[in-house]
Amino acid sequence: MTYDRLVCANCAAPVTEGRCPVCRASRERLREQEQGPFAGISPAALAALLVVLLAALALLAHQTV
C-alpha cells in the first residue's frame, strides 16, 4: 500500500502532507518499508515470477525421475 491515499486518524489530513507527528512517523515508516528488494516490482510481476519458478522446478523434478 502506498501512503498517498492514507488519511491520518490523528489530524484527518493526508499522511503525505505530514501535518502532525503521527503523520510524519507513519510516512517515514512507510518509506522504509518501500525500500525492500522487491519494492519496485508490481504484484503481478511477482506472481508471474513465481509461476515461472514453479514451472522450472516441475521441469527439473520431471527430468530427474
Account of the 3D structure:
- There is one protein chain.
- This protein has helices at 21-33, 43-64.
- It has 65 residues and is mainly α.
- The protein has two domains: 1-34, no CATH class; 41-65.
- The radius of gyration is 20 Å and the shape is rod-shaped.
Set down the secondary structure blueprint:
Elements: H1 21-33, H2 43-64
Short description:
This protein is mostly helical and 65 residues long. The protein contains 2 helices and no strands.
Which structural traits does this protein have?
2 domains, mainly alpha, 65 residues
What is the strand content? under 5%
Helix content: 40-55%
User: Rounded to an integer, what's the Rg over CA atoms?
Assistant: 20 Å
Distance between the termini: 43 Å
E-strand count: 0
Chain oligomer state:
single chain
The computed structural class is mainly alpha
Pick out the low-confidence regions.
none
Number of separate domains = 2
Q: What is the overall shape?
A: rod-shaped
pLDDT averaged residue by residue: 84
